[in-house]
Amino acid sequence: MPVLLAKNWWSLVIRGLVAILFGLVTFAWPGITLSALVLLFGAFAMVDGILSLLGALRASRNGERWTSLLIEGAVGILIGLITLFRPGITAVALVWVIAVWAIVTGALEIAAAMRLRRYIRGEWLLVLMGAASLIFGILCIIMPAVAALAITLWIGVYAIVFGALLIGLGFRLRTWTHTLGAGPTPHPAR
């Protein structure tokens, strides 16, 4: 999985750029209606899920681990479909949908980081992404009745932080692929 992930570093950068763009849109129009927020979030979750599924497909073709990418992609697409086909969802229900998505995604990212750290020394970016997702999900559960504007800003901050971490990880993996091509066969990190 680490070699495949490193070869597809660009997909992480694209996911990060989409997340940052989504976050910036939420700040540019803070008075966005809840219906528009639902559609924006649904589109973001769908794109993220589709990119994860593509990563799982490529991993399965190469005989590498792909289960966590498949689950993350399926959950992202499912949450995206729920939000897109149920635009009349209430603010509290939206918070719960987002919370579940963030917690599942965070747990899977931390699990992936634990596997990846055997191959890349000090791989903390994926752990930070997972922790950010978990914290965001827990905050949504603790304060479900928060106003739509605050939800928009929370999601914007989360998307920007998550996107920046994805871009950082993508470029770090890109550097790792160049190291692979220049030197001897890599050994798992200790």
What does this protein look like?
By secondary structure, the chain is mainly alpha-helical. It has one domain (2-182): Serine Threonine Protein Phosphatase 5, Tetratricopeptide repeat, CATH 1.25.40. The protein is 80% helix and 0% strand. It is built from 7 helices and no strands. The radius of gyration is 17 Å and the shape is globular. The mean pLDDT is 80.
What is the number of domains? 1
Could you estimate the helical fraction of the residues in percent?
over 70%
**CATH topology category name:** Serine Threonine Protein Phosphatase 5, Tetratricopeptide repeat
What value does the average pLDDT take?
80
Query: Shape from CA axes?
Result: globular
Number of strands: 0
What radius of gyration results from the CA coordinates?
17 Å
Architecture (CATH level 2) name: Alpha Horseshoe
The low-confidence runs, each spanning 5 or more residues with pLDDT under 50, are none
How big a fraction of the residues is strand?
Answer: under 5%
Cα distance spanning the termini = 18 Å
